[in-house]
Amino acid sequence: MLDRRNSKATPSYEELLAQIEALKAQVAHKSTLKVAKSGGVSLYGLGRYPITMYQAQWLKVLAMSVQRRPRRSSRSLPRVEASGTAAHSSL
Of 21, 45, 71, 82, whose CB neighbour count within 10 A is largest? Predict the structure, then answer.
């Protein structure tokens, strides 16, 4: 389609959707850490604003994540049959 204002072809709807998906893919994988002079570490890329904490705070968060991680044993995982479907064993 030709735009009369600047005589450039405007992208089609499908092309715009493809560009949006490409931009989403680029943004989704960008997370960075920055260290300030004050010692704070900022995590960018999870949301609109960065998460900034000091060393003791990061250590508390990491310790909580280890404590809250579910414990899985081999008995709680589903068996995979030869056909590729999961079958639960009776405990």
Answer: 45
- Return the half-sphere exposure (C-beta side, CA atoms, 13 A cut-off) of residue 17: 3
Token pair for residue 2?
């030709």
- Say which DSSP state 77 is in: S
Q: Are 50 and 30 in contact (CB under 8 A)?
A: no
Name residues of the chain where pLDDT drops below 50.
89-91
Question: What is the Cα 73 distance to its own chain's centre?
Answer: 26
Tokens of 23: 């931009």
**What does pTM read for this prediction?**
0.44
Q: What is the Cα–Cα distance from 46 to 52, expressed in whole angstroms?
A: 12
